[in-house]
Design brief:
One of its GO terms (molecular function) is DNA-binding transcription factor activity. It holds the Pfam family MarR_2. One of its GO terms (biological process) is response to stress. The protein is mostly helical. It has a domain of 82 residues: Arc Repressor Mutant, subunit A, CATH 1.10.10. The protein has seven helices and three strands. The radius of gyration is 18 Å and the shape is globular.
Length: 161
Amino acid sequence: MRWLDEQEKAAWTGLISLVLLLPGKLESPLRQEHGLTLFEYLVLSHLSEAPERRLRMGELAFLASGSLSRLSNVVKRCEQRGWIVRRPDPADGRYTLAELTEAGFDIVRLAAPTHLRAVRSIVLDSLDTTDQKALARVADRLRIVPDDFSRQPSRGTPRDE
């Protein structure tokens, strides 16, 4: 076994600290001001940016970096709040679409400034343009795909959605 050298150790400890602490820092203002988890916000936000504000569940899980089971639980809670409706995909009834309602779009509009303030103050304002480009490059290289999608290039199969 080869131990980490000083540079590797600094890279690893910095990354793991960021991975463990950043989600909570980004979620805290969303919870306090809007009663949303970070994952709920990401789901709603991705739907708000999608054509006709709807996506297949598998695609939405992939975009939000979550498993289908986690997404299903969150979508159920959002349905109960009136923010999302689920329906069969008219193009292929084997798939399920999640669609953002007007009430869901309203909560995204309210929460987006809170989220953007946190992203800027916690992450982006500390980095110049060169660092932001480097971060994007490293994040892309280290991108981890949820297990549900690692073997499924189509981002889900019918009815597991």
